[in-house]
Amino acid sequence: MLKNKNLDQRSFSKWNQGFTNLFYTELSRWFEGKGFLTRLLLWCGFSNGMAVLIWLQAPNVGSEAILVFGIFAGLTSSIGITIIMQETIVGEIKSGAASWILSKPITRESYILAKWIGNSIGSTISMIIAPTCVFYILFFLFTGEILNLEMFSAAVAVLSLNMLFFLSFTLMMGSFQRNSSLVIGVPIGFYLLQQILVNFSSFLVDIVPWGLTNPLSDGTPSIVVSFILGIQPFSTLPILVTALYIIILVLLTIWIMKKQEI
Description:
By secondary structure, this protein is mostly helical. It has helices at 5-8, 19-31, 35-57, 63-85, 90-95, 97-102, 108-143, 149-176, 180-200, 210-213, 223-229, 237-259.
């Protein structure tokens, strides 16, 4: 007996179906229009403003300016990316855009990964690489010294890792929470809570991102500052732990989105 070929046919879709178009859409939002240069200047100003004020008072100061830059670059990128990402998923769900997008031949994995990768690249260039390049040049102009490029690049990578943690955290919150205030409030609240946690227990210093960009309560410089200064950081465990958190947050976001009816 001949088999009915129509009954034997099965349709399979790749897990990354529809990724490319969504990725370029997310990435283009960071660089399109005249607003890109304005935003770039703002991020460079936020990260470098306090360091410049220090140099204007004492042009040859080096380590103090590096310390301040590490704190403000970490602060502005962490809070800034949380504000930017708060409506990335929630806004599309509320407007119905998410339902329309996912009604197309697009997988949930592609939907989340396109948002994560596109925004990660855009934010890293705009909020980390551009401001740190400006600081590198300013440091030379004010102090006459050239920072070790290899160690400085490591510091830039750590700053990026810290920001990507809060990007991933906010994206995950938006995957199941429809209250925009909570989507933005929980990550920002966690950022502030870290200072209390690390003071409460020395063990927690190694398992939260705080020490990546912020000095410890005893004056120990952050990992970012240690790398720029070329000294041994208090620990490298926060780098590994934060990278693991990011992976878990992204996978959790995908899992939550696949379980939801949108």
